[in-house]
Design brief:
13 helices; about 325 residues; mainly alpha; two-stranded antiparallel ribbon
């Protein structure tokens, strides 16, 4: 029988992980809103939106690396492959904003969660017990409730090509899962500064090449108003903060916790729509938020039987050692 340890939620690491996850989720929501606004202006240059974010990472963290004169701990091509996957994931998801609704995108992003669970289990040998899987299941129920709320409220915009947009999001979410799991492996093999430096450097290079091939004409045709420039700068700042914080969360709590935290981005979107745009929202949104938050808390808990098993194992080993020592101390041995 599995017992739940509610004291596990009180640990400093867990509380920081939960709080940091919600800050990251808020930044994810801001990025989504900004990308949606750019798409509404008819600007179709997905890679260019993430380019400045990568440049800022390279400048800030690369500068710290140069100042510290750090030794590179991981082969450069690992970072190059990570950056390539990350750039293409961003490209696919931002491209989807021109084909389907923001609600659909934020919903289908959840596909990254089962992908991360499988990848961490296969490649990182991460064990997921009943508590963890229960937390994931509860979180997903919360997201499903958001969908029902959208349908009930009738604010689910179809987009120009919803099917194409949905497939783009699923493909992007799969690449995000690969990127997150790779980051979890690399940040434990090296450190945050090195990871962010090379992700920014190679990400900027790959994005620049892609922009030169596919988006040069689009960028020339854009009427660069003050609003458009501010939107691009806003995306860059949000991406810088987003990547900086997710590395900390992945390092301390793992890629699965990060992806589960992003599930509440729908709820942050509701708050922005309510207080920023003065839109009415369905009551089911608030129930969905509470459900998803409960799932995060359940995922963060420890299972008593697991702790007791570990404690019992240590006690058994200590008892065996004492027995051996007593036998060695007996006369005639």
């Amino acid at each position: 029988m599995v017992c739940f340890n509610f004291n596990g939620i009180k640990s400093k690491k867990t509380l920081i992980g939960l709080g940091l996850g919600q800050i990251i989720s808020l930044f994810s929501t801001l990025i989504s809103f900004t990308a949606s606004e750019i798409a509404r202006k008819g600007i179709s240059a997905p890679t260019s939106q993430s380019f400045l974010g990568y440049v800022s990472l390279a400048l800030v963290y690369g500068g710290i690396m140069l100042y510290r004169r750090s030794t590179i701990k991981v082969k450069w091509y690992n970072y190059f492959l990570l950056a390539f996957v990350d750039v293409e994931a961003n490209f696919l998801v931002v491209k989807a904003y021109q084909n389907t609704s923001m609600t659909s995108i934020m919903l289908l992003d959840c596909w990254a969660i089962p992908c991360v669970l499988v990848f961490t289990w296969v490649f990182l040998r991460t064990k997921y017990r009943l508590m963890k899987t229960s937390g994931v299941f509860i979180c997903i129920i919360g997201v499903v409730m958001v969908v029902f709320s959208d349908v009930h409220a009738g604010d689910r915009a179809g987009g120009s090509n919803p099917v194409k947009g949905d497939f783009l999001v699923i493909a992007g979410a799969s690449l995000y899962a690969v990127s997150n799991v790779t980051e979890e492996y690399l940040v434990k093999s090296a450190d945050m500064i090195e990871l962010m430096s090379f992700l920014g450097l190679f990400g900027a290079i790959i994005a620049a090449i892609q922009i030169g091939i596919f988006e040069r004409g689009t960028l020339k045709a854009i009427h660069w108003s003050t609003e458009a420039i501010l939107l691009y700068l806003g995306v860059a700042l949000a991406l810088f903060m987003f990547y900086s914080l997710i590395t900390v969360l992945i390092m301390t709590n793992g890629a699965t916790m990060f992806n589960l935290s992003l599930l509440t981005s729908d709820m942050w979107a509701v708050l922005i729509r309510t207080f920023g745009y003065h839109e009415k929202v369905d009551w089911l949104y608030f129930l969905a938020f509470a459900t998803t938050a409960t799932g995060l808390i359940v995922y963060s808990m420890k299972e008593k039987d697991q702790e007791e098993h570990r404690t019992g194992k240590v006690v058994d080993e200590e008892a065996m050692q004492r027995k051996l020592l007593d036998e060695d101390d007996e006369p005639g041995t």
